[in-house]
Design goal:
alpha+beta; Butyryl-Coa Dehydrogenase, subunit A, domain 1; Butyryl-CoA Dehydrogenase, subunit A, domain 2; 3-stranded mixed sheet; two-stranded antiparallel ribbon; globular
């Protein structure tokens, strides 16, 4: 199997490497010390088209593939892990939409996620279950043409700033574990959806 990067991938790698050295590395330690979400870094990613690097062109992305996305994250993380996670965790939150959403949902959400106008988050981890899908306590109950979600998540990267959150919840507790959960798209401002205080961690704050 061929593992060499293509010319386009090397061009992307060099571009992001320069960007990371010139624009991301300066101030990285202070940003981590401050522990605040830095919107100037978000704007930098937006300006350079990095949010939708592997999204389909039909939905506003570059369609460069997951390897291209990995290259971007790697180069950013070399100088600031938090900057790399701006892309990686956004991607994680968008992945269920990219893989499993219907076309109406894809057309509604992906263009703004691809441009970085909207930020995505991935809500799996829970206080009692960690990231074990088999132990989720969050429940989703069908109510007419929608679902009502009831539960608590924790350590959700981007959770406090995300416009779109993909939330994992048990749909049918009678089904076998690992087969009873579904993923739901929750928009910021949805009634009943709230964000708690930010936990102070060892790094990547």
């Amino acid at each position: 199997m061929q593992y060499d990067l293509t010319e386009e991938q090397r061009i992307l790698q060099n571009m992001v490497r320069r960007l990371a050295k010139d624009k991301v590395a300066p101030g990285a330690a202070q940003r981590d010390e401050d522990g605040k979400f830095d919107w100037s870094m978000v704007e930098l990613m937006r300006e350079n088209g990095l949010y939708g690097i592997d999204f389909p062109e039909a939905h506003g992305g570059s369609e460069a593939g997951l390897l291209a996305m990995a290259i971007v994250v790697e180069e950013l993380c070399k100088v600031d892990a938090a900057a790399g996670l701006l892309i990686a965790d956004h991607e994680l939150g968008c992945l269920p939409i990219l893989l499993a959403a219907n076309e109406t949902q894809r057309e509604k959400y992906l263009p703004k996620l691809a441009s970085g106008e909207h930020i995505g988050a991935f809500a799996l981890t829970e206080p009692a279950a960690g990231s074990d899908v088999a132990r989720l306590r969050c429940r989703a109950k069908k109510d007419g043409d929608h679902y009502i979600l009831n539960g608590t998540k924790t350590f959700i990267t981007n959770g406090g700033v995300a416009d779109v959150v993909t939330v994992y919840a048990v749909v049918d507790p009678e089904k076998p574990q690992h087969k009873n959960a579904g993923v739901f798209i929750v928009e910021k401002g949805t009634p009943g959806f709230s964000v708690g205080k930010k936990e102070n961690k060892m790094g990547i704050r």
